Fold these 4 entries.
Entry 1:
Amino acid sequence: MRRTLLAFGLGFLVAMFGGWFLFPRVLYSRHSQPVEFRHKTHGEKSGLAQCDSCHTLTSDGQFNGLPHMEICAGCHSDKLGTSPAEAILVDSYIKSGRETPWLLYARQPANVWFSHAIHTQRGLACTECHGNYGESDQTRMYEQNRISGYSRDIWGRSISRLRRAPHDGMKMSDCEACHKRRKVAVGCLGCHR
């Protein structure tokens, strides 16, 4: 009986270790962005400190997401500095007129409808959901879930949320908590399609 309990306990611990520590490392593939980008450098050198200087809403209120190449080309039509990343941007994308194939950290699942316009028009600052990402001095590694194809940022560093840091991914519970704090009632169909 003791051996059985010991074997069960050992098997349970191995399974827990595999599930909590090994499975997430196998579940996500890591990819570099096509060009190294530094938000902080752009804010300091160009004076574009506001998110909406590059990340804009369309006339119908939809979020453009990543800046279109015309915005980048406005400053980078010729190499401004000597960085290898800037040379890649100008030579591979701006001169050829191609959009940079950025990997999207915050792409929501297909069943989620989210309007940046509604949130920004009600005074919600970008940093309240995205943190101080605009002050970052390096491009984070993009981690993609091998099963769903979505970014790890949808769930954050810890799926269980036991080791959660502020602005570590956006789960439905984060949205619900914010709506509750602000006393904004939205039914299921307000966010899900």
Note: The first strand starts at residue 28 and ends at 31.
Entry 2:
Amino acid sequence: MNPRTVVAGAAAAVSLAAAIAGTFEGERLTPYRDVTGVLTVCDGHTGGVEMRQYRHDECQALLQQDMAEANRIVRVCVGRDMPLQVEAAITDFTFNVGQGRAAHGKDKGKDGFCVLKTGQPSTMRIRAMAGDWAGVCAQFKFWTTADGVTYAGLVKRRTADRVLCESRQ
């Protein structure tokens, strides 16, 4: 594939995913703890958050960086071309849940798009790697909890991701 096409596709996917994240995260200029206790600011940014007031332009830059990183993870874990809307929906999903990590010793691990706590790939990833786009889109409904609690906001966000995913051409 042409490198310019890849970059253009990633940029479009990042833009669509950022729109969903912005809708559901909501820009908060003052750091806060999310439902799992993680220090968060802006539109769901969690890495290196400082206890200070952030500006809108800083939040926009962080969101773009975070989405670009989530998209990079998606592209690496899937390893194939995807329809734009599927890629965007998985990018928002990965931004929200992370790539995941297997449990080792005292580390309980974390379920995510690429890997589950068990060390196995997520079903969504398996279906994406196989090009089963309908199967990918159907997986969003299974990811509506945080720390074992179902949240209405996650149900709505996963529904939005699924609608975007299913709108693929």
Note: The first strand starts at residue 28 and ends at 33.
Entry 3:
Amino acid sequence: MALNSKASKKPRNHTFVFVDVENVRNAVESEGYTDLDYEKLFVWLKKKKDTKRIFLYLGIKEGDTEKEKRYKKLSKIENCYVSIKRVMIYKKSPVDLKTKCPRCHGYFNRKFYPKSGQKANCDVELTLDVIRFGVRKKYNRIIVFSGDGDFTKLYEYVFKELKKKVIVYAPSDKNGIKRTASSVKKLNRDGIIELEDLRGLFKEYTI
């Protein structure tokens, strides 16, 4: 009796990829490159990693139409989704800082001018999507491009609770500069994730 062809087929691994764009860009720039060539990266992911969906998360300043156009173009690629968050620019007011005089050891108030900053953290959006698709059993494994230690709890949840495989591409240490969180490395040593070096993709997939 012939075996049912459908039953005999080994189920394929459906991989979802999640990219923390700013984290990756900072790592790439620190190595002297500009950014990853995402179009070439997607080809590689689909061919080598059986990737079904790719998600990008990034912040863009108001008025940066060139950057927005470049990333929105990627959303036209099949099964690629781009999540854009507006960068919040905030100015900090000067504050009175109590300071001890090194000569007389008395205290006086001096004006301290904190640097203005900007923020567009997309960690929440990435985390929600990983959990949402995982609970709905849409993937068998995830690949995350980020060295951010804030995702360690998420990786533990996907591995322990959802019983899915986790691969993390993150920048490795070089010249004593630590860019991959120690908590992420620990998950690798504990067998919760597979940690692969992001630098291996720079030369072949840079703009």
Note: The chain has a mean pLDDT of 83.
Entry 4:
Amino acid sequence: MQVPWGHYLKIILSDKPTVGALMDLCEENYAFISRLIPDLSNMQGRDCSRSREHADLYLEILEQSRYTSLIHLTYYFDSREKQEPDPDVVLKVYHDAGQVEVVDLKQSVLPLHSLYDAPGLQNKWQANLFVSKWLAFCVHQGHQFP
């Protein structure tokens, strides 16, 4: 189910996300993950979606079970002596429910506090909205894991 962008814009402007809106966003994130990683439930290990024109996207499967996958997605950028991941996200993919939950998010653009500290719903909303826009960007760039 694709939720119209106007729905999210109203929530962003009102600054009051609801649990239902968060679940819609997690469902949208599942649709993006399904396009990026069509065979996710059968994958193991690490992989890289390479691009000549864009940053390479790195995937690591952290855990696989019958109904869920725990994955790590990131870009790596060269800094002084090492590569820095940014954004750096761990996602729990619920295949049976068609949902994606942000477990951990580190990035330099959006200041986030703990996902589960008060106001937890607001923090989860911001993290999932950021991830949604990033996943959409990755899909638009043509990234896909075989």
Note: Strands lie at 46-49, 57-64, 68-78, 83-94, 99-106.
